[in-house]
Amino acid sequence: MTDYTPLHLDWPGCLNVRDLGGLPLTGGGTVRERTLVRSESPSFLTDDGVVAATAYGFSRIIDLRRPEEIEQYPSRLAELPAHLHVPVQAAGDPEEGPWVHLYTGLLDRRPELFARAVGAVADAPEGPVLVHCAAGKDRTGLVVALALSLVGADLDALADDYEITNQRLAPRYAARAADREVLAGREIPPTRHVIVGAMEHLRTQHGSVEAYLSRGGLTPGHIRALRSRLIG
C-alpha cells in the first residue's frame, strides 16, 4: 500500500471518476494533474454530469468499449469533437476466467489494440485525456496501467488505484446484486492481485510493458510524448 490520495471528480450520475494526478512514480515525483482521467461509461451521466465532464476540457475521450456496447449504452459525450472509439477487443473474442486469465488473455490476444489505445493517450492534443469503458475497471484499468507503467508509476500505487474502483462502484453493485453473474469462475469484485498479475505477466512473457506495446505498434515517439504529457 502507498499513501496515494485519489483525486475523485464529481460528475453526477457517475461514481467512478478520478484524475490520476498525484499517483507516485518509482523514481520520485508524481503524475501531473489534469493529464489523465479514468471513469466508467459516460452513459451514466445526468445532465449536470455532462456539464461537469465537458467543463474539464478534454482534448481526447477514449471509449474502449465494443461497438455493440456503445449501441446499447450510448456515451453522453460522444458528440464532443474529442471523442474517439478505440476498442481493445474484437468481435468474437472470448473472455476467460478467472480474472487474471481474463486480463492476460485480453493482452496476449490484442497487443495492437492496446498499443493503439495507449498511443491515443500519447498523441492527443494538449489537454486532459479521459479513458473509459463500461465500469471503468477492467479494460480501463489495463490501458491506464500500461500507460502509467511506461512513465514509471509505482506498481503498488497502480494496485491501490485499481482497488479504488471496487469502493466507488460498491453502491451500484449492491443495487444490482440480483443481476450479478459469475462467468467461468471469476470472482466479483477483483482485487489488487489481478492488475499486479497482469503487469507481471507482461514482464515474464513479453520482456516488459514497453516491449509488449512496441510489438503492437507503439513507437518510441509515442513513449516520449506520453512521458512529456504525464510527468512533464
Automatic annotation (TrEMBL):
Residue span(s) of domain Tyrosine specific protein phosphatases: 112-168
Pfam families per UniProt: Y_phosphatase3 (PF13350)
Family: Belongs to the protein-tyrosine phosphatase family.
Descriptive protein name: Protein tyrosine/serine phosphatase
Protein's organism: Promicromonospora iranensis
